[in-house]
Design a protein that fits this description.
elongated, 2 domains, Alpha-Beta Plaits, 33% helix, six-stranded mixed beta sheet
């Protein structure tokens, strides 16, 4: 991980009476990360996010955001943080444009004479420029979510903290938000995205942490979490011949014959291209040879055994 540390927690814990909602979480998020915080609903994600922002006090442990202790230094930190947590709240009878202007006026934003241009810019970025004059009560759930994202972007934050930002969005809206977040990260904004959607984190986050029942069970680069398993699928019409070749090699072994059209093979140190060369050299017709990788669903299940809550 490169760059300054933007979020760090040490032993972060939150108890509500006899219930431990967050249990000893150690997070580290670097500047410029597109970081996914993944877990089922009820796993402690939102409580963790609220502690990061100083909205909830930790029972024990430490929180540091942008190099400052939270919540003690929140007055210094929060003006540089954009956040969307547990759904946006707006004045329903006022327009989206007016709501954003009021939010900008209430905080330590830029010069007043630039307010209109800032509001117009963020409305454009989230795809609401054409409906900015409508009252918020006429907005759909997805439109309100977009407006919440616009509010988080108003002050060009160094850190963007988002809790389930694609709730209520249609597939096109989800793609647009993903593209926007990737563009922000490319320009140096750190994005911390809390989600229960495996596909959302797998699709575009660079690093991820997985939390389950309040505990952190993994934290690494997404491509490391999805590393090859050491197995390949060999698709071939010559299954029996391929199996005989594999068993004759030192190292690789047939794990299982899933179907009549192929074999699942454990490589045990042999490169996939070498296995392919051995098979073809022995007269086996190889239609496809694919290195097996886990997806985040399989990683999550291996780490937790929980089959009930995290969605693709």
């Amino acid at each position: 991980m490169s760059g300054a540390t933007v979020i760090r927690t040490e032993g972060l814990t939150k108890r509500y009476g006899g219930l431990t909602a967050v249990d000893g979480v150690d997070l580290e998020v670097a500047e410029g990360d597109l970081f996914g915080f993944l877990g089922p609903n009820g796993s402690g994600k939102t409580t963790t996010v609220r502690m990061l922002l100083g909205l909830v006090f930790a029972s024990s442990g430490r929180v540091e955001v942008l190099g400052r202790e939270m919540p003690a230094r929140s007055a210094e930190v929060l003006p540089r943080v954009g956040a969307l947590v547990e759904g946006p709240g707006f004045y329903p009878d006022r327009s989206g444009r007016r709501n954003l202007a009021l939010i900008d006026a209430a905080g330590p934003g830029g010069p007043r004479h630039d307010r209109r241009s800032r509001v117009e810019e963020v409305l454009e970025r989230v795809g609401l420029a054409a409906v900015g004059r409508r009252p918020v009560k006429a907005y759909s759930t997805g439109m309100r979510q977009r407006l919440g994202l616009a509010a988080a972007l108003l002050r060009q934050p160094r850190l963007l903290v988002l809790d389930e930002p694609t709730n209520g969005l249609d597939p096109q809206g989800i793609r647009e938000v993903r593209t926007l977040l990737m563009e922000l990260a490319e320009k140096g904004t750190t994005v911390f995205l809390s989600s229960h959607l495996l596909a959302e984190v797998e699709a575009f986050c660079q690093r991820a942490a997985i939390v389950h029942r309040g505990r952190l069970v993994a934290q690494d680069r997404v491509d490391t979490l999805l590393a090859p398993t050491g197995m390949v699928w060999v698709e071939t019409p010559d299954v029996d011949q391929a199996e005989a070749v594999v068993w004759g090699l030192a190292g690789p072994s047939v794990v299982e014959e899933d179907r009549r059209d192929g074999l699942r093979v454990r490589l045990d140190g042999m490169a996939p291209e070498d296995l392919n060369a051995r098979l073809v050299g022995s007269g086996v017709r190889v239609s496809e040879l694919v290195r097996e990788r886990l997806n985040l669903e399989e990683v999550f299940l291996r780490l937790t055994g929980d089959t009930t809550h995290v969605d693709r």
